[in-house]
Amino acid sequence: MSVQFIGMIGHRLSSETIAPVGPIFDRDYIVRFAQTHEAAGFDRLLVGHWSDQPDGFLVTALAGLSTQKIHFLLAHRPGFVSPTLAARKLATLEHLLDGRLAVHIITGGNNAEQRRDGDYLDHDQRYARTDAFLEVVRQTWTQSAPFDVNNAFYQVEQAYSAIRPLQQPHIPIYFGGSSDAAIAVAGKHADVFALWGESLAQTEETIHRVRAEAAKHQREIDFSVSFRPIIADTEAQAWEKAEEILHIATERADKVGGGYNIKPDSVGAQRLRETAALGRVVDKRLWTGIASLVGGGQNSTALVGTPEQVADALLDYYDLGVRNFLIRGFDPLNDAQDYGKALLPITREKVAQRDAQEKAS
User: Fold this and answer.
1) Band of the pLDDT at 144, cuts 50, 70, 90?
2) At 41, is the secondary structure helix, strand, or coil?
3) CATH number of the domain encompassing residue 168
4) How many angstroms separate the CA atoms of 316 and 40, rounded?
């Protein structure tokens, strides 16, 4: 299928509008969440990475063994596991899930968070390390003979892995990051480049930059964009719902520590703040209310409207070359069910019609 929908799994129920519920590693919730997304028709589930949260490998394993068809996208941050070991861990997990795995490389754009795990490299050094990391990971996945590595970050002798990915030539690599250093690494290694939900103009600019960088290496890259759709039976109801979400999120932020006073320092966060500066609503229905509240610190822009209106907005990004949409709601489980009832099937139908028209012409 030419369009893919990715959800994002949590290890317990929580969001900007919902205080954390249940144990920190809620096995029942993880299973129910994965099965709900599979039943709703999602293609893949992202398992995120944070410096203070449960291990994503085990969250993915539990969710994967609880489902049959849905694929997974495991976020991994280079620098804390050697690349040869990471390659074997990922290949082993991929075998466990019968090939239903991709890896999302998150280099890290927050110095304070990196240092919680003992990483004191600066921004550009981290991306240089990611470049070296991915070189070794891909060698481990693909080389049939032992190999040596000796670069600024890694030294290994006679590295070899008996377990190889089921997917060929290797496990798909998703990649995030908006800085020049990130784009350079993406051009060499990414199969799918992931963006937060910016304006159409900003998204088109980034797509051109990434494609130009990939062309230097004779490569082509797919694209993913992330949104928090807010849908309702009527457009007016959807906008009312958005304002209520912002009201609840603001109250909750004030209760848990005075709001979001620290602006994240990543380039991606800076770009989302630039999007929010364009106005509360950009490109007809890209809503920046939560992005403004959190200072651009996460996937936080929403498309607001009826399922058909939001599907039409997604098609605007599809026309730019985006084939993957990471969507999650502010009421994660219930919103996933709602997306499966209307938004996903309507969008797929519109994409199929668009593709058929293009082929006919």
Assistant:
1) very high
2) coil
3) 3.20.20.30
4) 23
Residue pLDDT, tens place only, 205-258: 999 999 999 999 999 999 999 999 999 999 999 999 999 999 999 999 887 654
CB 196 within 8 A of CB 268: yes
Q: How many residues does the chain have?
A: 361
Instruction: Give the residues across from 222 on adjacent strands.
Output: 192
Q: Given the structure tokens 């991994």, which residue do they identify?
A: 76
Counting the structural domains of the chain, the total is 1
β-pairing verdict for 192-196 and 173-176? parallel
* Residue 104 tokens, joined: 């999302």
Task: Say how far apart CA 89 and CA 80 lie, in whole Å.
Answer: 13
Question: Is residue 158 classed as helix, strand or coil in its secondary structure?
Answer: strand
DSSP reduced 3-state for 46: strand
Structure tokens at 275: 């999007």
Confidence bin at 113 (pLDDT 50/70/90): confident
The gap from C-alpha 347 to its chain's centroid, in whole angstroms, comes to 19
pLDDT score recorded for residue 285: 96
Question: Residue 94 is part of which domain span?
Answer: 4-360
- 257: tokens are 């520590």
Sheet holding 230-231, edge to edge: 230-231, 302-305, 286-287, 281-282
pLDDT tens digits for range 250-276: 999 887 654 555 556 678 888 888 888
Are 176 and 194 in contact by the 8 Å Cβ rule? The answer is: yes
The sign one gets for the Cα dihedral 215, 218, 220, 221 is negative
